[in-house]
TrEMBL record:
Transmembrane segments: none annotated. This is Esterase. It holds the Pfam family Esterase. Gene3D superfamilies: alpha/beta hydrolase. It comes from the Bacteria.
Length: 241
């Protein structure tokens, strides 16, 4: 397994629980040393976080400025739009199984492969759109294992809000939630007209009344990386400083 620092690596991960193989990406920062324990930033739609968000560059800038602790970035890319709808969408056929995979098998592999801090408060989940919904789903289901999660413009419906309403341990969570003001009427990647702004405001209304750490931001812009990328540095600093 390639442990070269400063590069994005890709491996095929064979899941025993799901009897399937998934692509996993990981980035070891330039300062990487197995003499130190690291935070874990776990991204969904990871190829977009690297390509459009340039998350590794944003992390390196924060490290050089003394504004972030040691961290590795691990990610699950999506092979196709159909796969993304099936696995990352809260209403997808394999969504809940994949939540279990991430929360049990994948994090176990990460902790056994890399020098990590191995506690919920040292792990950050991140995703945008359906992958943002997925990041929040994992945190809502396993708040002690993953107590920190950031979602840009997640897909939200009443059933999704119910995932938080049925979780009695919300006080473990530290969530960062953004939505674009231009997302009241836009075309999704699947070619459907959608309003994400209204249901995300509903989710915000609910979470603001609950006993958790919660940051909510409405951004100028739409359902695109141009809106999300400027937030990444703030989020990394929020969780890693």
């Amino acid at each position: 397994m390639d442990m070269t620092p400063g590069k994005v690596h890709t491996i095929d991960f064979q899941s025993e629980t799901l009897s399937d193989t998934y692509e996993i990406q990981y980035y070891l920062p330039k300062n990487f040393s197995d003499l130190y324990k690291h935070h874990v930033v776990l991204t969904f739609d990871s190829q977009d976080f690297f390509k459009y968000g340039q998350i590794e560059r944003q992390y390196e800038k924060l490290w050089e400025a003394g504004e972030a602790e040691r961290a590795i970035i691990v990610g699950v890319p999506y092979p196709s739009v159909g796969w993304r709808n099936d696995y990352f969408s809260p209403n997808g056929e394999h969504h809940d199984l994949f939540v279990s995979f991430v929360s049990r098998e994948l994090i176990h592999w990460i902790d056994n492969t890399f020098p990590t801090l191995k506690v919920g408060t040292s792990r950050v989940l991140m995703g945008e759109s359906l992958a943002g919904s997925f990041a929040f789903s994992v945190a809502a289901a396993y708040p002690a294992t993953f107590s920190q999660a950031a979602a840009f413009s997640p897909f939200v419906d009443e059933d999704f809000i119910g995932r938080f309403e049925s979780q009695p341990m919300l006080m473990h969570l530290d969530l960062y939630h953004t939505i674009g003001l231009g997302e009241d009427d836009f075309m999704t990647i699947s070619g459907e007209q959608a309003d994400f702004l209204t249901p995300n405001r509903r989710l915000n209304e609910y979470l603001e009344g609950e006993p958790l750490e919660y940051e909510y931001r409405e951004l100028d812009g739409g359902h695109i990386w141009k809106t999300w990328k400027p937030e990444l540095g703030s989020i990394l600093k929020h969780y890693l400083n």
